[in-house]
Amino acid sequence: MRKISVADYLIEFFIANGVTDVFGYQGGMVCHIFDSLATYRNAINFHCCCNEQGAAFAACGYAQATGNLGVVITTSGPGFTNALTGIANAWFDSVPVMLISGQVNTKDKRRNYTVRQFGFQEIQAVQMVEPIVKKAYDVDLGIDYVELLNDAYRVAFTGRKGPVYLDFPINVGREFIEVRDEILPVELEIPISFDASPYIDQLMNAKKPIIIAGGGINQCGLREEFRELVNLLKVPVVPTMSGTDLVETCSPYHVGFLGGTARRESGIVLKNTDFVLSLGTRMCNKAIGYNHDDFIPKAKKLIRVDIDTNEFERQLKDCEEDVTVDLRAFISSALIHARKIEKKYDHSLWVDSVHHMQSLMKNVDMTFGNELVKRFTEIMPEEAGLTLDVGNNLIYGEQSAVVKRKTRIFASNGLGSMGYAIPSALGIAVTKMPTYVISGDGGAQMNIQELNTVAKLHLPVKFLILNNHALGHIILFQDHYLNCRRVATTEVGNDYYSCDFVAVAKAYGIRSSRIRNVKELDQFIVELNDDEPFLIEVDFEDCSMLPNIHGGLDPLTNGPELPYSLVEKVRSIMES
Predict the structure, then answer these.
(1) Cα separation of 68 and 246, whole Å?
(2) CB distance 274 to 299 below 8 Å
(3) Domain spanning 197-361: which superfamily?
(4) Region 368-539: CATH code
(5) Quick one: 13 exposed, middle or buried, by C-beta within 10 A (0-12, 13-18, 19+)?
(6) 565: DSSP letter
(7) How far is Cα of residue 467 from the mean position of the Cα atoms in its chain?
(8) Which residue spans within 307-450 are E strands per DSSP?
(9) According to the model, what pLDDT value does residue 432 have?
(10) Per DSSP, what are the bridge partners of residue 48?
(11) Confidence bin at 108 (pLDDT 50/70/90)
């Protein structure tokens, strides 16, 4: 046994549990923790971001890319409040992140006083953060700090993953405690075994089965196992936005993501399937539509598999069966059974019909944004991470990004936070994964200061900034609901402002260039694959996000009108 400070133990705890990189911003209330980080510099990296929101998003990106705990450390008061957007993102997208924010000395805390504030920069952090974390800890003197951290880690990773919070007074970090000579990693529960075979048999006995694949599969680190399962079952897969990278674009079972911002192909498949197995997704109304009668109208059965029983409070269909189980146990069992029945079932006619439909639809609704993203992701190396910001750029990315064998796609899917892409890319890039960003001019300006962090760390992040000098996705709402009154969304009215991203990047020491068409991307293939950051600003006129059909509506008769002959041909193929 030995005695060390709580701040030192905190850092040793992270190291023992596989955390290689920590993000945050220095402050008086966390200076002891930062001092300890410097002591262990050879074993753990600390990255000082330019804003706590950026640090929190970076921690999200790191956790999503590695499966490790994401850690963000901020000072009290404004440092804590700045980080809350990133923590809300982790909450809705089930990302295991630990936020530690400093706090005033324990003797200076407000506690039961009714005054507005007691200590300088003090804020009632625990009460503020509780709705968006799995558990918030009001840390005090004299508690069992070892068990505190063990519990926080277990909570973040047990069941549906998510963030935890530690309100950490400055004098706690100075406390000395007795600990083991070697700090052991926290042991997590092994999922209880489960028999998935009855559900797989039901799926395979259907004529036109599909799997709806959600972000829970990625969160459990089951991408490769899921792909093996799909290749054994040989049925089409319709992912959610959080699961877009689960199936390669070249896979015979790949269908685009579902939802109101999806391409038509997924909607056509959903209208014609007779059996759905849903894995690790809440299937929100944005994805399936507000009128649930229009969702999978021909399906005789919907099996929903999820670890979070709360998600089943929303009953979607009368034919629904809910299965509460850890996906690791379900997919493990499903794989064993799928290997046994691999040649028993044949859905080739259904798969061929989907392929035929996709071939007829592949050039429909393709915009400049789609073509640009398609080419950009073709240039990306196979083992690359792509972060997407919120706006039309997100939709172009989800619709048209080329998913290769090791491609990962990251976005703020639940919270939908503009400003996610640049700082989350920072968190991904420190893991040595080649990292690419697609953002619009609106989202890019939300956390543009993190270009400085990328530049100073010489991280080879590649940025594609789609600058249409407008908030294009909000314009869709204005055109639909407000008779095209474009207030605070374009530069025309002098109430929205883009900027010169090429100049901004150069000011931070990042190479940059401007293009105006897709073909110009090819002149930068070297820069898009080398070891230094590089930014491309795409200056273009605003283009629509197509087909913009609300979830559940008929994709053949809504949105931009399709040729009658094409509609009839697709119907004939899919209904046969």
Answers:
(1) 19
(2) yes
(3) TPP-binding domain (3.40.50.1220)
(4) 3.40.50.970
(5) buried
(6) H
(7) 23
(8) 320-324, 385-388, 408-411, 435-440
(9) 97
(10) 24
(11) low
